[in-house]
Amino acid sequence: MSNFECDSVLIADAPPAMMAGSIPSIDTIVTDLIAMIRSQTQYAGTAWTEATPIQETGIDSFDFVELVFEVEDKYGIDLNFNASNMEALQTVADVAKLILARLRAKGCTEWRASSSRGSA
Questions:
Q1: Which residues pair with 4 in a beta bridge?
Q2: 27 neighbors 37 (Cβ within 8 angstroms)
Q3: Using one digit for the tens of pLDDT, what is the confidence trace for 21-35?
Q4: Helix (H, G, I), strand (E, B), or coil: what is residue 41?
């Protein structure tokens, strides 16, 4: 992979979701999240939306942990789940909003291909 920059900070092997340019929209995150959940559950044919309760997806706690790792890898963020914030994540939209908030908290709005060589 190429190196990427965010606000003049060199990032080696930027997360794939960041290579397209700006932070993804909430709709893109929801679509990605639903695809990831489908890959973790036996209910792949179910029509889900952002309003779908996480419990209705059939994802169990082990699968949810795997989903967290997949999200963190895809977006290059740390979700820092604990019991108190897990209770607030009732729907697909709730998880997507958390992802978006963590992306924004990184302080980077634009990722650019870097002409620099080497790693961070």
A1: 11, 113
A2: no
A3: 578 889 999 999 999
A4: coil
User: How confident is the model at residue 32, as a pLDDT?
Assistant: 93
pTM of the model: 0.69
Nearest by Cα to 75 from 40, 111, 115: 111
If you average pLDDT over every residue of the chain, what do you get? 75
Closest C-alpha among 104, 90, 30 to residue 54: 90
The mean pLDDT value for 105-110 works out to 64
Please give the C-alpha separations between residue 45 and each of 37, 53, 70, 115, in angstroms, as whole numbers.
11, 16, 20, 43
Looking at this protein, which amino acid is placed at residue 1? M
Token pair belonging to 33? 């999240």
Q: What would the CATH number be for the domain defined by 24-107?
A: 1.10.1200.10
